[in-house]
Amino acid sequence: MMLEKGLSYNFMVERIAEAKQNHYYVIKVENRECWVKMQPFEIYQNPSKNIIRCEYRGRDSYGSHIFVEDRLSVLYELYTINNIYTFYYIKDGIDMFGNKCVVLSDNYGLTHFLYEELSLEQKHTHTPITCQIISIEKTQKILSLKLCPISKQSPLWIDADLLFRDINKEELIKEYFYNVLHGIKDGKTITQWHNIELLIKQHNNKWIRLYIRFLDRKLKYNVIRQGNLVKIHEFSQLMVCLTNWSKSNYRSWKKMPKSTKYEGLSKAILLLQNDQLQDFLNEFIQTVNVEGIMGEAMKKVNVILSSIEIDSLLFQSRTAQYIQIGELFHKNKSVIYLKYIEAFIGILSYRLNIEISKFQQSVIGEQTERFQIDSSILLKTLTVLGMLIIFLMEKMEYEKLFQYYKAAFHHLKCMFLSVQKKETNQYIYSLLEMMDGNDFFTWNNIKKIHLSTISEEILECCPEQGNNMVEIEDIALDKQLMFPSKMTNEKVLAYWNLYKDGSYVISETPSSQEGLLKSVTLLESCKNGFLLLCYNKGNINKIPIRTLLEKKKKNFKYINGYHQHTRLKEVYTIKSECFILILSLYQKEKYVKLYSTENISQHTSLSLKGNQVVDSVVDETDFYLIPNENKEMIPQRIVYSSPMPLGKNITNIYYAKDILTLKKCGAKI
Known about the structure:
The structure is a single chain. By secondary structure, the chain is α+β, with helices and mostly antiparallel strands. The chain has 5 domains: 8-69, CATH 2.40.50; 80-147, CATH 2.40.50.140; 160-305, no CATH class; 316-454; 467-664, no CATH class. It is 39% helix and 22% strand. A 5-stranded antiparallel sheet has the order 9-8-7-10-11. Strand 7 and strand 8 form a beta hairpin. Helix 6 (206-226) runs antiparallel to helix 7, helix 10 packs parallel to helix 12 and helix 12 packs antiparallel against helix 13 (375-393). The protein is elongated, with a radius of gyration of 31 Å.
């Protein structure tokens, strides 16, 4: 195929690819794949293009073809000649021919030129500028725009179709207007929608105000509950357009949501998608500690509040940061901080109600299966409840809400006692007793509880020490003491004692010498089984136990007991082949998979790294043995026969039931 530089060609889209946080259309040219970068707006519209038009730019230094998406085809796809669209001012500029122009951006992140003067008011960043599309210049591949005059009169009657067309969101009208009530059974919500319809029949433009408030107060939470960041981003962009449109056309309308609120939500989504939220929160805390909520920090508050609404790690690894932010708001008594405290409490209360609901469902499931409550879930819930109690104690206007949360503590305690006796976890019971009483619950108490629930990962991660020798902390090695194995009368054949310097001893008694890393009991039932040495980068070395028992010299110190250039995480003995659960941390997201030990090859050398059971790109890996007696409970959707996949993201609600089943099997996910 002869390609001419500067010309555009049509290609079939083979698939969508992702690399380094960018998305690409993959096309085939001369039986070789070429990647064409997608426009930002295409990522969030769930692209389903079969054909794409691309402009040829030549070859790179490796001889591969370079293509970019044809701008002209994008413009024809997004815009219709003679229609009116909304744009936003970026800056005054000069085009390639030296002519003065105004650079505008649209709702898709594309830039355009306007060759007319703007007023100072229109040059405000968030002020919408309405322009008519006169033509689409095919040679320069740009829009020819005409500025619409500013009308001081209220707009004429506008229906839903015209409104969505005016804000350039026609593709969303079916989902966010005509099908908006799908799945909502709340009678009050349906009544509100009938009021909107009544105003539309009366040709009263106030239906738009009611509609925007309906989206803000009702539909928003339905979208957030679905947990789909793409849909939430789509909704936030719609709300930005609607609020800006209403501000420019109906300045007198009161109690309308501000566009900055949804711009903050949109920013929070992008931070989550790009794995930058953790750094953003830390930077915000540092700025507020030094400067207070002024200047740049003030602009970030909406992002913080929005992140509380959508962050799946709110009750997990990021709880401490949100508590610290709440504390910063709480310490200052100014009016502006009070506003943030009220918003903070409202949003956190909503998330907490959802969390308690999930907890109740979990308890019901546990009762059915006769399992105990997962203490970590209860502790996380109690942590945030305690934090809210502190906010509410000093404010009389929150008295009713305060009583609600006191009742929530009591309810949780009763629920806890109904499914397991207090003797099974005296610490949890004592905690519930204290929080259900009248004791003042200080910040230090909350932080202690929080550390007991979320810092396990930090405690388990141990730094490397000189000459690549890795020392494993006692807290990680003693983790099995938290879940003691069942008492057994089986005959003990020997003990395998591993030391930090890599040496090991086969003895008839467990060792207590200095430098001991692990002492493993070799039972008679396991003599035909295997020893599994599990390492932090996703490797497992599988050694037949019989090779250890055949060592002739008892109490002799052998060398090369484990692979010393990686960190040993777990040591297991198994009677026969079984499944092992692999929990991997990659780019601060956790993934889970089940992998059969049958797929791991046997080795006679303890010093080998063994087989890779998950892609080596992982940052950290934890392992949990699934006993064969729980084999029937194993969720098949999480079983993998290939070692490379990371598995399923544990925050994916589609696999929530599978994750719960794995927890019942003893895994700490």
